């Protein structure tokens, strides 16, 4: 058994978890819907995207995670307010069979189509990817379409939790993963808007790191980097020098991870931002949600604490809109979705809280 991940986790416990935080006053904080207006008892795994008429958010909601009544819900930010959530997808297979839905991912393509990827299936080990799309910025949606099958991984998943990126030539690169044979990261690539897919990976065998749910960064030297959730109490990472056609294996970053989802993006100013739980695997490990920043993707600094209280604050999604603002959504105690807006200029490590 390789002991390196465990050693790294111990170091993070002794040193990393005591990092100072810095001033990053939120520009705006709101809930997408109130606790008394919940469309479902529980919700989780939000996603957010910008359209020409405003923001759109989605999440899965139902009685509880894994219950067959869990569907995909959407709200649009119109005239300064979030609209009443509506269910846009479910897991109904027939009159007798219904599966839960999971992990929606919103993405607006270069030609203006708003895509909504999600998963359907009884468990993450057996789920499959689905896609609906909107040409009116999330007001109406196409019929659902199954993404397909691949001989290496089985069901195509699409972006498993975090958004795809679209390369300069229009190619969609989806960060993905499977959980049926260890936790393993792979990528799904499409050059025709999601009609057909090529699978790259899995990029590791899960012997050192059980990693899932990658998000993609663009480094200044032209490489791509992914940051991943792991079972080994650290945020995992991997690198590509050929725009995602091949990848290094998973290695440890210098940030902790309590086996909880993260999201990351490269800002317009070239810095890299990660939203994550700055804890390791222990009881209550999703009670603190944080923002870290890096200039090179290697050395990270935790700059802001979004939440630090009893309860679960988890599964963040993050985008930067055309006006430069950073928008983060995340699960708030499984009851609602919280939306926080940050000004990137406030993410300055020289200004301590």
Describe this protein's structure:
3% of the residues lie in helices and 45% in strands. By secondary structure, it is mainly β. The chain has one domain (4-342): Neuraminidase (6 Propeller). The strands form 7 sheets. Strands 2, 3, 4, 5 and 6 form a 5-stranded antiparallel β-sheet that branches. The longest helix has 11 residues, at 4-14. The protein is globular and about 50 Å long. The N and C termini lie far apart (42 Å). Residues 7-23 have low confidence and may be disordered.
Question: In terms of topology, how is this protein built?
Answer:
Elements: H1 4-14, E1 28-31, E2 42-51, E3 54-62, E4 71-78, E5 81-82, E6 86-89, E7 101-108, E8 114-120, E9 128-134, E10 145-146, E11 149-150, E12 154-155, E13 165-166, E14 172-178, E15 184-190, E16 198-200, E17 211-218, E18 224-230, E19 234-240, E20 251-256, E21 263-266, E22 272-276, E23 288-294, E24 301-308, E25 313-320, E26 326-332, E27 336-342
Antiparallel strand pairs: 1-27, 2-3, 3-4, 4-5, 4-6, 7-8, 8-9, 9-10, 11-12, 13-14, 14-15, 15-16, 17-18, 18-19, 19-20, 21-22, 22-23, 23-24, 25-26, 26-27
Features:
353 residues, mainly beta, Neuraminidase, five-stranded antiparallel sheet, four-stranded antiparallel sheet
The tally of helices reads 1
> What is the CATH C-level name?
Mainly Beta
The total beta strand count reads 27
**Mean pLDDT, as a whole number?**
93
Structural class determined from secondary elements: mainly beta
Low-confidence stretches: 7-23
**Main beta sheet, described?**
5 strands, antiparallel
Give me the CATH fold name. Answer: Neuraminidase
Given the C-alpha coordinates, what overall shape results? globular
Rg from C-alpha positions?
A: 19 Å
Q: What series of H and E elements makes up the topology?
A: HEEEEEEEEEEEEEEEEEEEEEEEEEEE
Name of the CATH architecture: 6 Propeller
Distance between the termini: 42 Å
């Amino acid at each position: 058994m390789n002991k390196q991940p465990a050693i790294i986790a111990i170091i993070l416990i002794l040193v990393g978890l005591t990092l100072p935080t810095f001033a990053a006053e939120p520009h705006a904080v709101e809930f997408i819907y109130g606790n008394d207006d919940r469309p479902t008892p529980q919700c989780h795994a939000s996603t957010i995207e910008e359209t020409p008429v405003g923001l759109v958010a989605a999440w899965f909601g139902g009685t509880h995670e894994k219950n067959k009544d869990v569907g995909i819900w959407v709200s649009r930010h119109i005239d300064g307010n979030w609209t009443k959530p509506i269910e846009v997808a479910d897991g109904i297979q027939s009159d007798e069979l219904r599966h839960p839905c999971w992990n929606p991912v919103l993405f607006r393509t270069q030609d203006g189509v708003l895509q909504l990827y999600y998963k359907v299936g009884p468990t993450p080990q057996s789920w499959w990817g689905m896609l609906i799309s909107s040409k009116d910025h999330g007001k109406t949606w196409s019929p659902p379409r199954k993404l397909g099958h691949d001989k290496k991984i089985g069901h195509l998943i699409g972006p498993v939790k975090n958004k795809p990126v679209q390369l300069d030539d229009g190619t969609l690169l989806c960060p993905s993963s499977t959980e049926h044979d260890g936790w393993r990261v792979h990528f799904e690539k499409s050059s025709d808007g999601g009609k057909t897919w090529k699978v790259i990976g899995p990029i590791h065998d899960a012997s050192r790191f059980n990693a899932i749910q990658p998000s993609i960064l663009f480094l200044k030297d032209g490489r791509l980097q992914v940051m991943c959730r792991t079972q080994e109490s650290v945020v995992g990472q991997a690198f590509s020098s050929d725009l995602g056609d091949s990848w290094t294996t998973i290695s440890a970053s210098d940030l902790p991870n309590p086996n909880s989802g993260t999201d990351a993006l490269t800002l317009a100013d070239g810095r890299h931002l990660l939203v994550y739980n700055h804890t390791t695997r222990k009881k209550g490990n999703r009670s603190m949600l944080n923002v870290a920043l890096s200039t090179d993707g290697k050395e990270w600094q935790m700059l802001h604490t979004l939440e630090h209280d009893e309860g679960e604050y988890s599964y963040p999604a993050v985008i930067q809109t055309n006006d430069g603002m950073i928008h983060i959504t995340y699960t708030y105690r499984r009851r609602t979705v919280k939306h926080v807006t940050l000004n990137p200029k406030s993410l300055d490590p020289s200004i301590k809280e």
